[in-house]
Write a structure and sequence with these properties.
Pfam families: BLH_phosphatase, Pyr_redox_2. There is one protein chain. The protein is an alpha/beta fold. Helices cover 27% and strands 23% of the residues. The model is unreliable at 135-140 (pLDDT under 50).
C-alpha cells in the first residue's frame, strides 16, 4: 500500500485490500472513500470487503464510484460535500489514486489557488494538467487537436491487444502503434481453472505488462474515458486526448459481481469462491482440498461469459479430486446453469454427460443465481423454465463456486461504438466496425456470435492485423474470421475434452482425429493444456508467432 499525501486532511492511494484497513486506521485516518466501481479489474476486491473491514476498524466509509475519466462537475460537488462532512483526515482510493485526486482538486478549486492545487498533486505524483484544461474549456474536452497522435491505437493490453500489436508489427514494421491500458499486470486467465484445481500456482499466470508490450510499441498507462470516433479521438482519464488513424478496441469485459445480491460481501470467505478472479482461484483449491463431506454448488450465469465451459471445468476438477481421495460419496454436487443445455455444441455433450454421471452431479438447468448469504450458507436461484412463471428457490451449501454475470465495460457500453446490448458492433467476418470504417474490434468485447475465449483472440488477432494493413494500403478486407473458439474442458486431472468450434457450432479441430478426437476425453489434450499452451501463450501468441492461426482469406481477395 502506497499512501500519498495531498493535503493535511486528505491522502490517496491505489487500490487497497481489506488487510490494509488496519494499517490505514493505525496511521490516524478517520474516514475512507472508495472512488473505484466494483468489477473494474479481475484482481480487484469489492467495496463491501473494504467496507466491512473499515467498520470493524471504527472508520467512517463512503462509496462514490466514478467511471475512469468520467469525473463530472456534479461528481466534484458531491465529493466536496462528502469531504466536508467526513471526519478528517480522509483517505481515498481508486485504481491508481488519480480519480480520487481529481475529485479533490476540482472540489477544492473554489478554496485554493490553482497553482497550489497543481503543486500539491504533482508532489504526490499526480498530473492534474488535463483537469485544468477541461475547466478552462467549460467542462468540454476539445477533440480537434490531441496530446498525441499514432497510426494505430489499441485499447486494451490483454490477450487480444498484445497479440494484435505483435501481429501488426510482424506485417508492417515502422508503424507508430500505441497500446492503452492502465493495468500493471497481465494475466493468463485460462490458467485460473488449473489454479482452482490445484494444478498451477497463481503466480505462474501473471507477468508484468511492461515485459509484454512489444518492442517499439508505445504503452500509454491510462484508462479510457470516452471515444470521439467522428474526430478519430480517444479521451483518457485526466482528459488527455489521443488521436489515431486507425483504432482497435479490445479491452475485454466486466465481471458484474454486484448483480448477485450479497455476493460481494462474502467472496473469498464462508465457502464462497470463484476461479474468475486471480486472488480467489487459490481459495477454490483450499476449499476443494479440505472438503470431506457436504453440499457443493457450481453456478453458471446467462450468456455471454468468458469461456462457456469454465464453470463446469471447476466442477469436474473438484469432483475428480474428491473421487481420487475417496470422499466423493459424501459430497452432494449441484451444477446450477441459467441456460438449458450442458454445453452449446451438441457433439461434446455425450462425453461431458458421462462425467456428470461418474461424479453423480445433479444438473439444474434454467437456474440463475440471484442472491447469496454466505454466513447462512444459503443461495437463491430464479428458475425460469420455458413457458412457466419464474420461481425462486433456495439452496443450502457448504461450498459454492460462482461464475459472475458479465457485461461490456462501462466506457464501451455508453460509447458510440456499442450495439444495443453494449458490445462493440462489428462485421463478424472482417471484425471491422459496422459504422466506423477505421475501427476494428476483437476479443471478449465485440459482438460476433463466437465463444469468448483466449483461443478465439488468438485466431482473431491475425485477421484484424491483415485487414488493418490492407486498409492502410487502400485495399478491401483480405482476411475473415470463421468464429473459431476453443474450450479445453478439464473433465478430470489428466484428461480433457478439447472442444473446438466456430460459428453455428461447426467443429473446427486443429488436429487429426487419430491424434486428438475432441469429442472424447484425451490425455494428450491435457498435456496440451498443462504443458504446451502456457508457453505458446507467453512466447508465441503474445509475440506475433501465429502457430495454427493463419488467417482465412476472403473469397476473391
Amino acid at each position: 500500500m502506497e499512501i500519498k499525501t495531498i493535503s493535511n486532511g486528505f491522502s490517496v492511494s491505489p487500490q487497497i485490500v481489506a488487510d490494509d484497513v488496519k494499517e490505514i486506521a493505525k496511521r490516524g485516518f478517520r474516514s475512507i472513500v472508495c472512488n473505484r466501481p466494483d468489477g473494474e479489474g479481475a484482481d480487484q476486491p469489492t467495496f463491501e470487503e473494504i467496507s466491512n473491514a473499515a467498520k470493524e476498524a471504527g472508520l467512517e466509509v463512503r462509496y462514490q464510484p466514478i467511471v475512469s475519466g468520467k469525473v463530472s462537475d456534479d461528481d466534484a460537488r458531491d465529493f466536496g460535500r462528502l469531504y466536508d462532512e467526513l471526519p478528517k483526515p480522509v483517505f481515498a482510493y481508486c485504481r491508481t489514486g488519480t480519480r480520487s485526486t481529481t475529485l479533490w482538486s476540482l472540489s477544492q478549486a473554489a478554496h485554493l489557488d490553482t497553482s497550489e492545487i497543481l503543486r500539491a498533486t504533482k508532489a504526490a505524483g499526480y498530473d492534474m494538467g488535463g483537469v485544468v484544461r477541461r475547466i478552462v474549456n467549460g467542462g468540454k474536452t476539445p477533440t480537434d487537436q490531441g496530446d498525441a497522435k499514432y497510426d494505430i491505437v489499441i485499447i486494451g493490453g490483454g490477450a487480444a491487444g498484445i497479440s494484435v500489436a505483435s501481429s501488426l508489427i510482424a506485417r508492417r514494421s515502422g508503424l507508430e502503434i500505441a497500446v492503452i491500458d492502465p493495468a500493471d499486470i497481465h494475466y493468463y486467465q485460462p490458467g485460473w481453472t488449473m489454479v482452482g484445481g490445484g494444478v498451477f500456482e497463481a503466480s505462474t499466470t501473471a507477468q508484468t505488462m511492461g515485459s509484454l508490450i512489444p518492442k517499439g510499441v508505445h504503452w500509454i498507462k491510462a484508462a479510457v474515458a470516452a471515444f470521439e470516433p467522428q474526430d478519430d479521438a480517444v479521451i483518457l482519464d485526466g482528459c488527455r486526448v489521443v488521436k489515431y488513424d486507425r483504432l482497435i478496441v479490445c479491452p475485454g469485459l466486466k465481471l458484474d459481481w454486484n448483480r448477485v445480491e450479497g455476493l460481494v460481501e462474502t467472496l473469498g470467505r464462508n465457502g464462497v469462491t470463484s476461479n474468475y478472479r486471480y486472488d480467489l482461484a487459490p481459495y477454490t483449491w483450499e476449499l476443494v482440498s479440505s472438503m470431506r463431506e457436504g453440499k457443493a454448488i457450481f453456478t453458471q450465469p446467462p450468456m455471454p461469459i468468458k469461456c462457456a465451459g469454465a464453470p463446469q471445468k471447476a466442477m469436474y476438477l473438484s469432483a475428480d479430486h474428491w473421487h481420487r481421495t475417496g470422499v466423493l460419496k459424501n459430497i452432494d454436487i449441484d451444477f446450477c446453469n441459467a441456460g438449458g443445455v450442458l454445453f452449446g455444441v451438441k457433439d461434446y455433450v455425450p462425453a461431458l454427460e458421462s462425467y456428470v454421471k461418474k461424479y453423480d452431479a445433479h444438473l439444474d438447468f434454467f437456474h440463475n443465481l440471484v442472491a447469496i448469504d454466505g454466513q447462512a450458507k444459503k443461495a437463491w436461484f430464479d428458475v425460469a423454465k420455458p413457458d412457466t412463471e419464474v420461481e425462486r428457490v433456495e439452496k443450502s451449501f457448504d461450498m459454492i463456486h460462482v461464475c459472475p454475470p458479465q457485461v461490456a465495460p462501462d466506457f464501451i457500453r455508453v460509447s458510440p461504438l456499442a450495439d444495443a446490448a453494449g458490445w462493440v458492433d462489428v462485421d463478424q467476418a472482417t471484425l471491422r466496425h459496422k459504422s466506423f470504417t477505421n475501427i476494428w474490434s476483437l476479443g471478449d468485447v465485440m459482438n460476433a456470435p463466437n465463444a469468448k475465449t483466449a483461443a478465439a483472440a488468438r485466431k482473431q488477432a491475425p485477421v484484424v492485423a491483415e485487414n488493418v494493413v490492407a486498409d492502410i494500403d487502400g485495399k478491401s478486407p483480405v482476411a475473415q474470421y470463421d468464429g473459431y473458439g476453443s474450450c479445453p474442458l478439464t473433465v478430470e486431472r489428466g484428461r480433457i475434452v478439447l472442444a473446438e468450434f466456430g460459428y453455428g457450432g461447426t467443429l473446427l479441430p486443429s488436429f487429426p482425429k487419430w491424434l486428438i478426437d475432441g469429442t472424447k476425453p484425451s490425455h494428450l489434450a491435457w498435456l496440451l493444456k498443462e504443458k504446451i499452451l502456457p508457453p505458446i501463450y507467453w512466447k508465441a501468441m503474445l509475440r506475433g508467432k501465429e502457430w495454427l492461426a493463419k488467417p482465412e482469406k476472403v473469397t476473391g481477395a
